[in-house]
Amino acid sequence: MAVRDDIYVIENVSPRLVVVEYPSTEVTVQDLLDTLRNWEADMMNLDADKIVQAAGKDELGGGVKVGITVTLLNARLMFETRAAPLITGTATEFDADGIILTDSNATFISDGIYPGCTAWNQDTQAMGTVKEVLSETQLRMFPLAGGSSIEWNIGDSYSIYPNEQCSVTGGNLVAVDANGNSIEPIAPSANVQVVRTSSSSATLQELQDIQYSSFAGGVWIDITSPYKGTGYPIGTPRQPVNNMFDALTIAVQRGFTRFYIIGNITLDDSLDFEQMEFVGESMTKTQITIQPDANVHKCEFLEASVIGTLDGDCKVKNCVISDINYISGYIELCVLQGTIVLGGGATAYFLDCWAGTTLGQPPVIDLGGSGQTLVMQNFNGFIKWRNKTGPEQANASLNAGWIEIDSTVTNGSGTILGVGAVLDNSGDGFILDTSYLVSPPSVANAVLDAALADHILDGTIGKKIKDNLTLQDYLGLK
Predict the structure, then answer these.
(1) Does 274 reside within a domain?
(2) 3-class secondary structure, 199
């Protein structure tokens, strides 16, 4: 049973009005039924006429039920008017056809104006629908109508209202008047468009499970999308939501922890993203910018280009990392660019990563002075370490790599092994072990420094040299 606290009844009209409060944009038929039955059972409403009846929901087995039909009795459903304008302003150019609204002081895109919004000329009382957002300062309209003039004159005051899509889902909704005659179950309200999803079949699977699966495991976000709000199917791949506030609301309501990002997005401090997962389209198609105050603690980022500031215990995988403050956590299978600054007094892991810049401009890992331990496993390419003043370790295994250690690395210790090279400009306080590093100099030194006493096998060069036979003699060159 789901009793909604954002639904109330207006009784002193006929038919009565069952109102869904702003800013809610969705109601299921089951929630409506539960809420109205709870209203009927309230002591204050015991003398009121019955307001709802229902049929259906009979079990057929296998998780399949007969579709529910709710009938409103001398009542209609209404979503509250969206009375607050998205933006107000003054026209700064004349347009005789009422098609182009220009306001040089406006920020239409930033203020979330989208095709379908309603523009009202307060001076002429004419209204029109936004056809296209041309720029921050200009809109293309369907022609104005209904006022004393269809023109946009310089100095005309205007307001632009949302036309918000609301939905009734999860079954059939019908209504009858006081005499039992069928009436339209939805009462109109300003700046609201209501979509009803009815059950045309005699049976349906549980709606919640069907809706959940249509999201493909997360909420889809495209800031250029025309869809806002939290009513289903907004947030699905077919209708991605255009803002993070609604996206997070949908995620919390439906139990998702993943966001699919179409295009680019910026995360700021207006919301709490802790323990969420962000999945882009690819390294080249999606850029995720994280502002310094954004709470992304224990978040994961995949298939994107990531810049900005990460919090602790984050994981970044299959991404391009560019100029990022990385507190601690795991960077895996990533291309490194720019400067990555460690911090937070914890260990940072770089696993199977590659340098994404040229030899002359390597990516830089700034070890953040003191407190941070660095672990790099199976690194490929050229990278530079700098700014290490604490006693912690900085270790790396190279697949085919080259590490330059800057003179600002002055304390602690490190081990670099694998296949590659090291350019060590570190200060005297940094103790570096490269004894397990395979490189041309290390191979040559290992051969030349080999003890002759260990060469006892007949037929080997080492044995011949040990026996005072020159290499030229051995090769038959003399």
Answers:
(1) no
(2) coil
